[in-house]
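# step 3/5: fold
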Amino acid sequence: MIKGLYEAHLPVSNLKRSVEFYKGLGLEFDHRVEDKLAFLWIEKEKSWLGLWSTEKVEVEYHPSLRHIAFEVSIEGLKKSVEWLKNRGYEPRKTFGFEPTEPFVMPNSDFAHAKIHFKDPDSNSSEFICKLENPQKIEERMYLSEWEQLQDKQ
């Protein structure tokens, strides 16, 4: 029945500024609905992000309300800190990890490597990719540490 996620939505205080921010991440602008809503493709013809202009962006952050994760390749993730900074975006400290490099959160048979950052309205965004976890590692760690453990096998 369900084939995937078609759209996600975030509140923004300045639609034009936010459209430019997400275009800077590589999303493709599709269309605007009046001056209140804009859609950008995350994956062309597959999934998009809706940005809603509102004065209610000051709602206290909680990941269930104002968060989006973009799937990236492991190669892209390894370059993400520099990539973000080169575009004027700052990675942020998350789960106790300094934003010097991506970190890994294991989950039994697999893990997720990720880096977090905020948009202009402090909506939480992340780049994330799924990793195999054949060793059943349970500890969170930086991606470079994870790769060192994998190389030992």
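# step 4/5: annotate
The mean pLDDT is 91.
# step 5/5: archive (pending)
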